[in-house]
């Protein structure tokens, strides 16, 4: 009886080819999901960095426009690296001391998709302007 148990133990002591193939398949599927997640995270990180740069460029342009005399603020566009800044100044006819400004910053990504960030602000001229 002891011989039978020893023989069964020897025959079942390793993994079968099927078990190894299933384990490799499961590992490969998990690794492919991890790889796809890393690629997606890298893309999102790049997009986030570009959005932050675009917001900073928009805020910088708004501050540049604020330094102009109120009457000299006008629409325009410029390029900073791969970013294109376009601003539109709309005079408020009902309230002549107010100008609405829309500033749009756009840029292409690595696949030539165009992304943009838009900032809207209002410029107000005091009743007693200092400039």
Mean pLDDT: 86
Strand elements, count: 4
Query: Major sheet, described briefly?
Result: 4 strands, antiparallel
Q: Uncertain runs with pLDDT below 50, 5 residues or more?
A: none
Identify the CATH homologous superfamily: S-adenosyl-L-methionine-dependent methyltransferases
Which descriptor suits the 3D outline?
A: rod-shaped
Going across the biggest sheet, name each strand in turn. 1-2-3-4
How far apart are the first and last residues' alpha carbons, in Å? 108 Å
What fold name stands as the CATH topology?
N-terminal domain of TfIIb
How many helix segments?
Answer: 2
Short description:
The protein has 131 residues and is an alpha+beta fold. The protein contains 2 helices and 4 strands; from the N terminus they run ααββββ. Strand 3 and strand 4 (114-124) form a beta hairpin.
Walk me through the topology.
Layout: H1 2-11, H2 17-66, E1 76-80, E2 83-91, E3 98-108, E4 114-124
Report what the structure shows.
There is one protein chain. This protein is an alpha+beta fold and 131 residues long. The chain has one domain (2-124): N-terminal domain of TfIIb (Single Sheet). 46% of the residues lie in helices and 27% in strands. It has helices at residues 2-11, 17-66; strands at 76-80, 83-91, 98-108, 114-124. Strands 1-2-3-4 form a 4-stranded antiparallel sheet, covered by helices on one side. A hairpin with a 5-residue loop joins strand 3 and strand 4. The protein is rod-shaped, with a radius of gyration of 32 Å.
């Amino acid at each position: 009886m002891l011989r039978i148990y020893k023989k069964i133990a020897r025959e079942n002591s390793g993994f079968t080819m099927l078990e190894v193939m299933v384990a490799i398949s499961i590992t490969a599927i998990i690794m492919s999901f991890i790889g796809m997640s890393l690629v997606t995270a890298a893309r999102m990180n790049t997009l986030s960095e570009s959005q932050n740069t675009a917001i900073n460029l928009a805020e910088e342009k708004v501050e540049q426009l604020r330094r102009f005399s109120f009457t000299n603020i006008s629409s325009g566009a410029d390029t900073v690296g791969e970013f294109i800044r376009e601003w539109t100044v709309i005079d408020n006819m009902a309230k002549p001391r107010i100008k609405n400004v829309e500033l749009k910053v756009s840029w292409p990504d690595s696949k030539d998709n165009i992304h943009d960030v838009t900032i809207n602000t209002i410029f107000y001229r005091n009743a007693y302007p200092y400039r």
